[in-house]
User: Fold this.
Amino acid sequence: MDPIYTDFTVAENDLPLVRKYLGGPNVKVKTYLADGSITPRMGDLYFIDNAVQPGSGTVKVRGVTANADRALWPSEFVLVRFILDMLKNATLVPSQAVQVSQSGPFVFVVKPDNTVELRAVKPGQLQDGDLVVLENGVKPGETVVVTGQLALSPGAKVAPQPYAAQTPQQSAGSKGAM
Assistant:
């Protein structure tokens, strides 16, 4: 039970991204319970299968995590986040701020005069707590519109309000068993 193994799967479509980071120093397995009763635990990648499972299109993966307090139990269902890399100084926005049009993904940025500007962005990976990395399009410190985008057009006047971030939804991770 200490350490404890966590078995989960990775979709075949995600394999090129996994291969890109495999063996890297930041590859980790974050394990936690759906009810939030324990602090999420960081572990290491222990094993990745070399075959795609027929029918499911997934690859078996195993992580190994310290469990000195025995809070995690064998065969218990847990949530798993497979971390491939750590991004430094990433620009994060709530995922609902990113909208999609025929021209691609965009956000509304609030300018100093409280009007909005439509800005094309390149979204990256999804983070804990329903945040998304923006690879370009928004500078640090700029304010983006999170709700009410359907009523906006470029140049519209807004009255910015602070965004009250919701608690991380535990369902964002993959389910696995130990």
Notes: The radius of gyration is 20 Å. The CA atoms of residues 87 and 133 lie 9 Å apart. DSSP finds one helix and 13 strands in the chain. The first strand starts at residue 4 and ends at 11.
